[in-house]
Write a structure and sequence with these properties.
CATH architecture of the largest domain: 2-Layer Sandwich
Strand content: 15-25%
Keywords: Kinase, Membrane, Phosphoprotein, Transferase, Transmembrane, Transmembrane helix, Two-component regulatory system
CATH class of the largest domain: Alpha Beta
Number of strands: 12
Subcellular location: Membrane
Radius of gyration: 54 Å
Order of helices and strands: HHHHEEHEEEHHHHEHEEHEEHEEH
Oligomer: single chain
Catalytic activity: ATP + protein L-histidine = ADP + protein N-phospho-L-histidine
Helix content: 40-55%
Protein name: histidine kinase
Largest sheet: 7 strands, mixed
InterPro entries: HAMP_dom, HATPase_C_sf, HATPase_dom, His_kinase_dom, HisK_dim/P_dom, HisK_dim/P_sf, Sensor_HK_Regulatory, Sig_transdc_His_kin-like_C
């Protein structure tokens, strides 16, 4: 049988409660007995001394044991809660009030008697019970002298065997039963109250457990289940835990949806890339087959080889971009921040596109022309970003257009802007330009010459450089891409 948290707590509480109640009852009874013994012994402390002083036989030191036995018997009839014994100086019983056969031992220990005589304030003191071989009882004692000679001790047991028997019977009757009944009812009421309190305290835990099981059954899809409403301001830790569970479930649901969306995007990207890979590959195969069939025409072979090589370059470029994007998305790309001259990097990147721009009739400029500025970034990844942005600008800029890289110092940061006077990007396309499969519908270049991965790679590189990229564009006016870098002087001594 599987027990819930409440059942375990209830059983543990009941066991501890019964143990504590038993110890409490035992302790109160023991304390009550000690208190009663102390009170009775103190009350009857002078009983033996008065009997010695008032009895002529004991005063004169004449011991007619038969007469003394009759005296003891008479006193016991008058006071049935007492037992009388006359003990010699060695502790031997000389006479007593008990009937023959009731006394189990003939000698008692005198140490408690002497202790009570010498130190009457230290109560209770227990002495040997002659009617019990191992028992002890409270007593009253007085020495008996004949002149200056000690003749023995009058030893009076307080609480005779008859008295104990009567008390025992009383305890077993109605009073004890009523007392125990009230005690049992009180304990049962207290236990019930505590169990109800535990039930109240563990109810949120049970609700949270059931809620988590329902979430697990629904595979953490919050559209299939209603989340419990926990009080955020509640001081109960279970409510706080429940709110944390709700937040965790929402995060899991969001991540699952994002993974599903990402998986769908990957499938679409794979389908598109497969088409892009198949196109140059099929063209390459076709031209190679033509070359193989028309070996007799060198001019045609040269033309076909040129087209085949162009398809090979396109295929290689596409595969390189795919691998680069996969490497960036894997999270294994390393970043090496260093201090370098930003102007030198910009002119190096411009030089790579100078011939191509001249053929297209597009001007390339850097502002300011003398750009002697120190930057702190990853020079390799920044070069890749600038290359992608300029290549993208060339693709969208027609003859007579211009591309400008502008650097502005704003406080402790450098703002790099790549501007073009191309056809621009429509407002409806702007939210999607950094997607891996985006390819602008108004591109001026050949759409077969690229796979639409340049801006996607750029965005991921920008994130590695710990900055953001922004874009502004108007149809017929042009497009601006801008991002920020850290200036070297304030940060050159800091390691990333």
């Amino acid at each position: 049988m599987k027990l819930s948290l409440y059942h375990k707590l209830a059983m543990s509480l009941a066991g501890i409660f019964i143990l504590i109640a038993s110890l409490f009852i035992w302790w109160t009874q023991a304390l009550s007995q000690v208190s009663r013994a102390q009170a009775e012994q103190q009350l009857h402390m002078g009983l033996a001394e008065h009997l010695v002083g008032d009895n002529p036989l004991l005063q004169q030191g004449v011991y007619d044991y038969k007469a003394l036995e009759n005296l003891f018997h008479t006193l016991m009839v008058l006071g049935p809660s007492f037992e009388f014994y006359f003990v010699d100086p060695s502790g031997k019983l000389l006479t007593y009030s008990a009937k023959p056969g009731e006394v189990k031992r003939q000698t008692i220990n005198l140490v408690p008697l002497i202790k009570l005589i010498d130190q009457p304030e230290q109560l209770p003191v227990y002495g040997d019970d002659p009617r019990n071989e191992c028992g002890e009882k409270i007593f009253s004692v007085a020495p008996v002298y004949n002149g200056d000679t000690l003749q023995g001790y009058l030893y009076v047991i307080i609480g005779s065997k008859l008295y104990d028997s009567i008390i025992s019977n009383i305890k077993g009757n109605d009073q004890l039963i009523i007392g125990l009944s009230w005690l049992g009812l009180a304990l049962a009421f207290l236990l019930t109250a505590l169990l109800l309190l535990f039930k109240y305290l563990t109810r949120p835990v049970a609700a949270l457990t059931e809620h988590i099981q329902q979430l697990e059954h629904a595979q953490f899809d919050i559209s299939k289940i209603t989340l419990l409403n926990w009080n955020k301001a509640h001081s109960n830790e279970v409510h706080q835990l429940g709110e944390s569970v709700n937040n965790m479930v929402k995060t899991i649901d969001l991540q699952v949806k994002q993974l599903a969306e990402l998986d769908d995007q990957r499938r679409q990207l794979l389908a598109h890339l497969s088409h892009d890979l198949r196109t140059p590959l099929a063209s390459l195969q076709g031209y190679l087959e033509i070359i193989a069939l028309k070996k007799h025409d060198p001019d045609q072979q040269a033309l076909h080889l040129g087209v085949a090589l162009k398809n090979c370059d396109q295929l290689k470029s596409l595969i390189d971009q795919i691998f680069e994007l996969a490497h960036l998305e894997s999270g294994h790309a390393n970043v090496q921040f260093e201090v370098f001259n930003l102007g030198e990097l910009l002119y190096d990147v411009m030089a790579k596109f100078a011939i191509r721009a001249d053929k297209m009739g597009v001007s390339l400029t850097i502002s300011p022309t003398v750009c002697d500025i120190k930057a702190y970034s990853d020079i390799g990844k920044l070069e890749r970003v600038l290359t992608n942005l300029i290549e993208n600008a060339l693709r969208h800029t027609g003859e007579g257009g211009a591309i400008e890289i502008e650097v502005n110092q704003r406080g402790e940061h450098l703002t790099v802007t790549v501007k073009d006077t191309g056809v621009g990007i429509s407002a409806k396309e702007l939210p999607y330009i950094f997607e891996a499969r985006y390819r602008a519908s108004n591109s001026k270049g050949c759409k077969k010459s690229h796979a639409g991965l340049g801006l996607a790679i750029t965005e991921r590189l920008i994130k590695l450089l710990k900055t953001d990229i922004r874009v502004q564009s108007k149809i017929g006016v042009g497009t601006e891409f801008s991002f920020q870098l850290r200036e070297a002087e304030p940060y050159s001594e800091k390691a990333e």
